[in-house]
Write the structure tokens for this entry.
Amino acid sequence: MRGEEETSSELKTAIDDLASLFRQSSRALAFTGAGLSTECGIPDFRSPGGLWSQNKPIPFQAFVANREARAEAWRRKFTMDDSFAGAVPGRGHRALADLIARGRLIGVITQNIDNLHQVSGVDGDRLVELHGNGTYATCLACAERHELSWVRHRVTSGDVAPDCRSCGGVVKSATISFGQAMPEAELQRAVRLSLATDLFIVIGSSLVVHPAASLPVTAKRNGARLIIINRQETPLDDIADLLIPGDIGTVLSGLVQRLN
Ligand code: NAD
């Protein structure tokens, strides 16, 4: 049940229930969204006042077709990066890294692009980044990696939308924009994990961005239990086995304590 504000005793009971489902599981899997990083000071998209209400994202086609859109995308990117440069993993990230280290989670599928799972100690072979990574850039034509420091230097030198230094192609932050195809290999890894898990835990996602949001349904149809830890309602609440509308950092750190 989702109430206005869950009381702390209700939240404690929900964390107890989560711990109990964890003890019954041998292949739990986390699926994280922007809500995991709000306690690190990085706003999500769809909370009230989130990024969505301030700046509509620039779609992929506009970025590729239009140099002015690219210039605007780099301006926004560097403004955001400067605001969040000091962000470090929160209690939620640390709890997930701890659960992986203890063999309690088979992996993390993330929609986040902020690199905080890696900083918290999750290895690449346990992590699927469905929407890419915002800490570097790549050429859309030849895939050469370009460091953001190089892009920023070009931009501040007056080249507001720099092209690839090797092939002249369009350089873009290594993230997946609206309208851009999902990386096929990452999507396949995510589907494989979703079919392997017996406990699929959604953490801080509004579950409206597809195809990522279809993964919980894939897992559930394959017999996994589905848990959703999210303050706001999601379109999959009706099929969840456990809904926890509480604060992610509180819930996940409470879970780790109970499993100790
Ligand atoms: P979203 O913004 O659509 O949804 C986040 C959800 O988290 C919201 O429903 C909100 O109620 C909930 N939430 C926020 N803080 C919470 C907390 N402390 N406890 C419990 N719930 C909390 O996010 P999404 O579903 O991940 O989709 C957004 C897209 O934007 C993703 O594709 C992602 O790539 C991108 N994005 C990434 C970041 C990041 O990397 N940190 C930030 C913003 C957007």
Summary: Residues 33-35, 37-39, 42, 44-47, 50-51, 111-114, 131, 204-206, 209, 230-232, 247-248 surround nicotinamide-adenine-dinucleotide (CB under 6 Å). The chain has ten helices and nine strands. Confidence is low (pLDDT under 50) at residues 1-5.
